């Protein structure tokens, strides 16, 4: 009898190995790690569509960290999600993980979201990173935000230690050779008031899937509101096509600390239309990021993987024995 695929209502994941701190790591008291300034704080979103990627990303962070027990994870979930199920799913795979869940009520941002070139980009949780400074407790001053469709192959501590200088709010990989004009519509560029936004700024594209963020400076500068103001203009005038990225560019492009490209080898998911296979950019690699339409778990399940998807597969914790009924 042929195997019949049954829907995975609640995806089941295998338990990951336990990872230990090296002797050189700071000792942080366990009850206080989720609010400790000595801990390395990582923020991610988790939802039903991307949880398989999130679990792989968490594993990759822990596996390559020299001080895995000094990492505190902060997971943003939809306010309508089953928090108990999400917590149980994470804990079953990572029993020793220090983490907290933050329900994101998207009622305030939902009216500001415009349709984009790919429906997945319109998910309200995709905008949760804009609200990190208010969602996370004020005791957290600095956080490393990571997308769910990436894996790290290097020690995250090196990335988290990047200095933001005296004024910068965030650090991210910057690509000044990209066609920056293409991220905004002719309506934007033909409006003299709007196009002057980038006057006296060396505005370059940067990817928001990996960001080091100073939450104190974000709060002081009221940057959530500044991004929301651009989203309000977008609703009236259609000044961009690509989800949550353009408002970030409008506020921060030209004013960020650039990070070495090895920390975000993005675009491995291809473009936003076809999701075709892509190879790595030249140079060393610390983060592989499947941004774009094609996700490695989907291509693997469809038995049409790209060459680099095999690297992601080595971090996949999905227990496939729950996916089939013979």
TrEMBL record:
<dbReference type="Pfam" id="PF01501">
    <property type="entry name" value="Glyco_transf_8"/>
</dbReference>
<dbReference type="GO" id="GO:0005794">
    <property type="term" value="C:Golgi apparatus"/>
</dbReference>
<dbReference type="GO" id="GO:0016757">
    <property type="term" value="F:glycosyltransferase activity"/>
</dbReference>
<dbReference type="InterPro" id="IPR029044">
    <property type="entry name" value="Nucleotide-diphossugar_trans"/>
</dbReference>
<keyword id="KW-0812">Transmembrane</keyword>
<keyword id="KW-0472">Membrane</keyword>
<keyword id="KW-1133">Transmembrane helix</keyword>
<comment type="similarity">
    <text>Belongs to the glycosyltransferase 8 family.</text>
</comment>
<keyword id="KW-0325">Glycoprotein</keyword>
<dbReference type="InterPro" id="IPR002495">
    <property type="entry name" value="Glyco_trans_8"/>
</dbReference>
<comment type="pathway">
    <text>Glycan metabolism; pectin biosynthesis.</text>
</comment>
<protein>
    <recommendedName>
        <fullName>Hexosyltransferase</fullName>
        <ecNumber>2.4.1.-</ecNumber>
    </recommendedName>
</protein>
<keyword id="KW-0735">Signal-anchor</keyword>
<dbReference type="InterPro" id="IPR050748">
    <property type="entry name" value="Glycosyltrans_8_dom-fam"/>
</dbReference>
<keyword id="KW-0808">Transferase</keyword>
<keyword id="KW-0328">Glycosyltransferase</keyword>
